[in-house]
Amino acid sequence: MGILDRFFNKSVRVSNSKLITEPTATFSSYNGDAYANDVYREAVDAIARNAGKLKGSHVIKYADHNKVDGDCKLNRLLQVRPNPYMSAYDLIYKLVTHLFLQNNSFAYLDRENRGNLVGIYPITANNVNILSDVNNKLFCCFTLKSGKQVTLPYSDIIHLRRYFNDDDVLGADNTAIIPGLELAQTQNDGIISGIKAGASIRGILTFDQIMSPTKLKEEKEAFVKDYLSMENGTGLVATDSKMSYTPIENKPVILNADQAKEVKTKIYDYLGITEPIVNSSYTEDQYSAFYESTLEPIATALSQEFTAKLFNDREQAYGNSVLFESGRLQFTSNKTKVNLIAQLVPYGLLTINQALEILNLPAVEDGDRRLQALNMIDAKQALEYQGKGAAASDADD
């Protein structure tokens, strides 16, 4: 029994509502083990590693657009330690890994008696049935890796999904990429077989006289020992008229470099990632495209799901939300960062500490001040100045 199995044994509380036994939707993890394929795993790992840097924060946004930090205990769960067994990075890494392996990812929100959040636990399950009660309230019946079943209210579940099309609740499976995975596995097997086949010499040894099976075996073993062993450094075979040796040419079918790259690209495209991101050879523009196309949708999904599950409608109406974000400038070069700061600081758009954060430098005391160039004035003052100027001109006329 795993750590989280013991947690669910003692901590999960389910409503006493009568459940309808027939599930409204069913999800089973892909048993083809896509994670065992090196190309698929390294791509998923690259996405999860970068997504793990997303920072979740409870924020309160007021009507005048001022945004302040929310509850410090909730922020600690989101940013540091969501549960006793893992860090915030580990939580997001696992959720994103499950998301790209199964197109569905689940985490349980553990609340104390007063409803306050005390822990977030990712759920690793073989399958899940989505059930509903007579009041159309949804529940998730998970079958954990240990075989234990646990039923949880859907309102206490963080649920991320990809390819959300066929079902009303769950994301579709990864059937579409199975041919690509099989081709990648066949490619790996073919390379291994080709190396083994190339390391051996195969042929037919023919004798011009009839021999007993025992004698034939002795002659064959002697021939192999003399000419086909590693000690035969010349690579030459000498025979007389009593025997002849005919080698069999073995040419294993191995994909060329372009074909092998095409197999990788097929998997990378399916996951929304490129090879430079996987091997960390990306440029600023390549990472920016990856962030906007792959990481930002994950951050948006996390933000909306955590907001909806942690706060009721009234709390959301008062500006409470959870925001997952990452420093968009963390992947840019120092030259780009310096140029950006030089352009923004004169307009008072950055505080001193914000500028230092862009440069990955520690904050300083009294660094929340904004600096502004003297030749920049407030727009309202500019309008007043222009109005006074126009009035003076009319008086002169």
Structure characterization notes:
The protein is an alpha+beta fold and 397 residues long. 43% of the residues lie in helices and 18% in strands. It has 13 helices and 12 strands. The strands form 4 sheets. It has a 4-stranded antiparallel sheet, with no helix packed on it. It has a 3-stranded antiparallel sheet with strand order 3-2-12. Helix 2 crosses helix 4 and helix 2 (38-51) packs across helix 7 (257-271). The longest helix has 27 residues, at 284-310. The protein starts with a helix and ends with a helix. Residues 15-22 have low confidence and may be disordered.
In short:
The chain has 397 residues and is of the alpha+beta class. Helix content is 43%, strand content 18%. The N and C termini lie far apart (93 Å).
Q: How would you classify the quaternary structure?
A: single chain
What order do the helices and strands follow?
Answer: HEHEEHHEEEEEEHEHEHHHHEHHH
Q: Let me know the largest β-sheet.
A: 4 strands, antiparallel
Strand order of the largest sheet: 1-6-7-8
Give the % helix: 40-55%
For the secondary structure, the number of strands is: 12
Distance between the ends: 93 Å
Point out poorly predicted stretches: 15-22
Class from secondary-structure proportions: alpha+beta
Strand % is 15-25%
Radius of gyration: 33 Å
Mean pLDDT: 79
- What sort of overall outline do the alpha carbons produce when their principal axes are compared? elongated
Number of helices: 13
